[in-house]
């Protein structure tokens, strides 16, 4: 008689436990056990519990390879979901086998789990193991399907995670919106989250934290009449009255210094959209800036051509914004532009704007604005640039290049990599809650009652159109971080803390990925001969890049270095890249004039006409400002249940070498965090968005 000691760990999140009956079957290389009910006197499988059981078998089962968990109805109790962390079994010879689950069992079902050792197809020789991985992939592909949300954007998971809100008129005096949160000024499909598969949803704690903070701020705005006010702000200082309750040092700095040229230039380096600026070696024909125009701002003894040759001139070009129609907000037509901004990096180490053109087409009705123009002309020109920054950041750098791409990475992984695959184990922590937050994002941003419809000049179609155009130009090389800095000519630009910190995190991540990949893929042939890996890569190319060959995204990987680069890009995109464009979002956007989402007057066609009154009349009205602030505050505040980069409480790897690599990765991140904090002590504006302790493993907000 062989005795197996079994430990079953239930998740720690509220409601993880179950009252259903759980049985276990153990499968080894020399046979399998009978199905045995796991039952003690009293409560089993309570939240956070690690229950211990004994399974008796007539004979030794050999090496344990698979277990089956059977979830069945208990007595008269209704169906009760259960979150299983893992099952651990001690064999008669003392060897301990780990079977990671980290997933929900919702209905009455059987869940088959493999022993935790990471294995590719080439590592499996037993027919039962090969059949198991094929069945797992087949089942997931039957469950998860691709769906087109907006033609031209990455496809997303086709499950009922989002349904267009439907207005009901059962009582004409009290019209209700499906999923409408009372007092919240835009339409949200609140109930949609319950249609998500449990394994893709927020935890109970994170859900409660996220949704309970929507109401109070919206209610405060409503009570004060701000959500019904369609008038202009009377004074700039009045905008401070809608600041969220907890203000940071950076947010207050932005409100005080937003109009200064030095801070305007600083944001290109260390703001929330630090990946746009590029070195300018030749003034483009569409931006006819002359030496006479800008010479007074370059310093003595130099000229525009000399500064171009020295590499001190930089360009922010918003050409991708050109040509989109605008909508009406609060009954007033909104306006749009695609500006160009020329900047100079001076000997004092500051990036300063020296010329702004509010159109991609020069002409007599498109003057080039200069720092020497009137105060309000120059300030409004800079504000138009900051308006374009809103779309460059929110639509491209944030939503498209992190959220939507990461969701495609996630879905392709779920559909093509079995849980035993080393790449699945490596990537799964970096996909946590991404589908959930993207479902919320689609419901909040991209629907006819959402933020893009009620708070942005471009509306739903224009906002989506910016992303479609950006995806059509996205390249694989641009996602490889070191290449991006070199291609933009900013690899040696002083004071570029975003670059310094992102490269430090990238290098630590790349080293970690290298150690993990080379452990499981000892040669190029192992990479090229992995059909599951190749299917994952092919599906990303097809469903995320929409099969566009000009993107440079690979359709297959043939060498170990190619795989290391690819996986590093995926994990960086899902973690640090998102942190760089999301964590500081509220600090830089809370002061609306620094980041307006709409503009109510057309771009200036002549100089000398702008006053304080016309400036205030161009900015968004009170209602639009509050709507935008409320939504951005909601989507940028990190709820509870965070997992910082490098912290992997779910044990997917059990081999010693990968475990050592994980610990070494964590230590390197700690060193980076310490260095960032020491540097920030000496900075007037601390840059901490890429401090590893503030970077989430995944995109979860």
UniProtKB/TrEMBL annotation:
Residues 119-701 form the Lipoxygenase domain. Gene3D superfamilies: 3.10.450.60, Lipoxygenase-1, Domain 5, PLAT/LH2 domain. The keyword Disulfide bond does not apply. GO terms for biological process: arachidonate metabolic process; ceramide biosynthetic process; establishment of skin barrier; linoleic acid metabolic process; lipid oxidation; lipoxygenase pathway; positive regulation of gene expression; positive regulation of MAPK cascade. The record marks 104 as: Essential for stabilizing binding to COTL1. Ca(2+) binds at residues 17, 80. Binds 1 Fe cation per subunit. It holds the Pfam family Lipoxygenase. One of its GO terms (cellular component) is perinuclear region of cytoplasm. It is found in: Cytoplasm. Keywords: Calcium, Cytoplasm, Dioxygenase, Iron, Lipid metabolism, Metal-binding, Oxidoreductase. Pathway: Lipid metabolism; hydroperoxy eicosatetraenoic acid biosynthesis. Its cofactor is Fe cation. CDD domains: PLAT_LOX. Residues 2-119 form the PLAT domain. Fe cation binds at residues 398, 403, 578, 701. Belongs to the lipoxygenase family. This is Arachidonate 12-lipoxygenase, 12R type. The gene is ALOX12B.
């Amino acid at each position: 008689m062989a005795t197996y000691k079994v430990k079953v760990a239930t998740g720690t999140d509220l409601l993880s436990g179950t009252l259903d009956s759980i049985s276990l079957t153990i499968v080894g290389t020399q046979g399998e056990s009978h199905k045995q009910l796991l039952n003690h006197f009293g409560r089993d499988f309570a939240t956070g519990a690690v229950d211990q059981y004994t399974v008796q078998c007539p004979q030794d089962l050999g090496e344990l390879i698979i277990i089956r968990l059977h979830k069945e109805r208990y007595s008269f109790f209704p169906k009760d979901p259960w979150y299983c962390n893992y099952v651990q079994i001690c064999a008669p010879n003392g060897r301990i086998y780990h079977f990671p689950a980290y997933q929900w069992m919702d209905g009455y079902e059987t869940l088959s789990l493999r022993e935790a050792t990471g294995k590719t197809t080439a590592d499996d020789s037993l027919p039962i193991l090969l059949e198991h991985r094929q069945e797992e992939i087949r089942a997931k592909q039957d469950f998860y399907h691709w769906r087109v949300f907006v033609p031209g954007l990455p496809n997303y998971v086709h499950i009922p995670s989002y349904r267009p809100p439907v207005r009901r008129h059962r009582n004409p005096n009290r019209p209700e919106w499906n999923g409408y949160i009372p007092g919240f000024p835009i339409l949200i499909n609140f109930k949609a989250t319950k249609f998500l598969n449990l394994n893709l949803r927020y935890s109970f704690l994170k859900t409660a934290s996220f949704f309970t903070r929507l109401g109070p701020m919206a209610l405060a705005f409503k009570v004060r009449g701000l959500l019904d006010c369609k008038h202009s702000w009377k004074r700039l200082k009045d905008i401070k009255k809608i600041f969220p309750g907890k203000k940071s040092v950076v947010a207050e700095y932005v409100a005080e210094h937003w109009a200064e040229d030095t801070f305007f230039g600083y944001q290109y380096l260390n703001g929330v959209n630090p990946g746009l600026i590029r070195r300018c070696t030749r003034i483009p024909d569409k931006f006819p800036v002359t030496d006479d125009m800008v010479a007074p701002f370059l310093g003595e003894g130099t000229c525009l051509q000399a500064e171009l040759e020295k590499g001190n001139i930089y360009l922010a070009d918003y050409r991708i914004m050109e040509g989109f129609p605008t909508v009406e907000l609060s009954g007033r037509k909104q306006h749009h532009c695609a500006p160009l901004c020329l900047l100079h990096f001076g000997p004092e180490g500051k990036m300063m704007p020296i010329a702004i053109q509010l159109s991609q087409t020069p002409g007599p009705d498109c003057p080039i604005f200069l720092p020497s123009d009137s105060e309000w002309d120059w300030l409004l020109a800079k504000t138009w640039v900051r308006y374009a920054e809103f779309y460059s950041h929110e639509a491209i750098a944030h939503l498209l290049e992190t959220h939507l791409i990461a969701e495609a990475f996630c879905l392709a992984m779920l559909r093509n990599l079995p849980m035993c695959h080393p790449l699945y184990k490596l990537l799964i922590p970096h996909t946590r809650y991404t589908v959930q937050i993207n479902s919320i994002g689609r419901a909040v941003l991209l629907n006819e009652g959402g933020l893009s419809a009620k708070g942005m000049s471009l509306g739903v179609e224009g906002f989506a159109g910016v992303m479609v155009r950006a995806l059509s130009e996205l390249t694989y090389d641009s996602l490889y971080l070191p290449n991006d800095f070199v291609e933009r000519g900013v690899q040696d630009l002083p004071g570029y803390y975003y670059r310094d910190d992102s490269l430090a995190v990238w290098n630590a991540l790349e080293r970690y990925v290298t150690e993990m990949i080379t452990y499981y893929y000892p040669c190029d042939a192992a990479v090229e001969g992995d059909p599951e890996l190749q299917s994952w890569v092919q599906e990303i190319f097809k469903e995320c890049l929409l099969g566009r060959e000009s993107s440079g995204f690979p359709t297959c990987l043939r060498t170990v270095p190619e795989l290391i680069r690819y996986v590093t890009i995926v994990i960086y995109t899902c973690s640090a890249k998102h942190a760089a464009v999301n964590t500081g979002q509220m600090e830089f956007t809370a002061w609306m004039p620094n980041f307006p989402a709409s503009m109510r007057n057309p771009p200036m066609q002549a100089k000398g006409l702008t006053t304080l009154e016309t400036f205030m009349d161009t900015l968004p009205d009170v209602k639009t400002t509050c709507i935008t602030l409320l939504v951005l505050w909601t989507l940028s505040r990190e709820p509870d249940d965070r997992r910082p980069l490098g912290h992997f409480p779910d044990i997917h790897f059990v081999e010693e070498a990968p475990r050592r690599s994980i610990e070494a990765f964590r230590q390197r991140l700690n060193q980076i965090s310490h260095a960032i904090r020491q540097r920030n002590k000496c900075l007037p504006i601390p840059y901490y968005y890429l401090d590893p302790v503030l970077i989430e493993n995944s995109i979860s907000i």
